[in-house]
Fold:
Amino acid sequence: MDVAEAVRTRRARRAISERPVEDDKIEALIEAARLSASCFNNQPWRIVLCKGQEALAKAKETLSKGNVWATKAPLILIVSAKPPDDCQLSDKRDYFLFSTGLAIGQLELRATELGLLAHPIAGYDPLKAKAIFGIPEENVVITCVIVGYPGTDDSLLSDKQKEAEKVRPERKPVGDNFFLDRWGNPYH
Structure:
């Protein structure tokens, strides 16, 4: 699968199999994130890979009710970073969130290529995750990434989530997000 195909194929699916993810595939995901671009190559991301039964059970305790589907996941990544580990721009904007997002984006594409789902979520308790996994206070828990093979059992999905599994969500027209030469001048 080439990059363009991975971009077209990648979806935030929720029907997930409990089949374990092989170590070589986990290492491929790590390498994809590790090689990601970051400001001055700072690589601010820190990722706890929850794979063992005890760690997985604890990670699943942090999930919100809307993410009950993720309790089937054989691998959950707890992604964090801290502002001083990356650039701060002249307008006092911290870059660590962007750099970490790039790494997770690359990880998602590699997962797609490997036949896996990698679904970042916001529905979890970051303070609980910090406490459970010993993540330092100064770190920001940015996301949890639910990783596994696609599944067919949708019994843990809401009706809305079942519908979302069927087709890729609509995207905004290009002109809503992309401007040519000046803000507000739609590219198309």
User: Anything to note?
Assistant: Residues 96-113 form the longest helix (18 residues). The CA atoms of residues 110 and 182 lie 34 Å apart. The mean pLDDT is 93.
